[in-house]
Each structure stands twice: as structure tokens, then as C-alpha cells.
User: Fold this.
Amino acid sequence: MDQKKCLVQVDEVLNHLSEEDLNKIPLDIRNSIKENKDKNYTWEYDETKELWDQDLDRKSIAILSYLNMEYLVNKEQKELLKEMHRFNERKKYSK
Assistant:
């Protein structure tokens, strides 16, 4: 899936955040997502499913993970996520 279509998925997921969480993501980033997404592609968030069951593209997951790590989690959670990423990288390259 191309980047512009992924931004459609990201924008749709962000639309389902609480206002408090959404406001933690800088407005210029949110506006950039809206401006650069594919205007002809549609993707709908299924409110009957959890986020991990939404059939998101891997690139969309990567963008959402970045936004989560940079803006939504607290310091302790951020350190834990970084450690998990390091562990996964080591595991991937040790095969």
C-alpha cells in the first residue's frame, strides 16, 4: 500500500482517539496527515473490533507506533517500548 493510502488509515484511527489524546499530537502533524492522504481512497475503522484487529497496513502501523511513542505514552512506557524494540531487533538479527 502506498504512503498516501496509509495516511487515510492513520487519520481514521486518530479520529477515534479521545480529544485529550488527539490534542497531544501536534496540530501541524495532524494537518499534514490530512493534507497528504489519498483523497480517493476510503478505509473505515470498525468500532466492533479492537485496534489490532483492524487489518491495518504495516506502514500504517509503523506510523501509528511512532505517533504513540512520541506523543501518547508516558516516560516509563516509552522506555519499555524502546527496550522491546531493541530486543526485537537483536532477535531478528540473531537468526
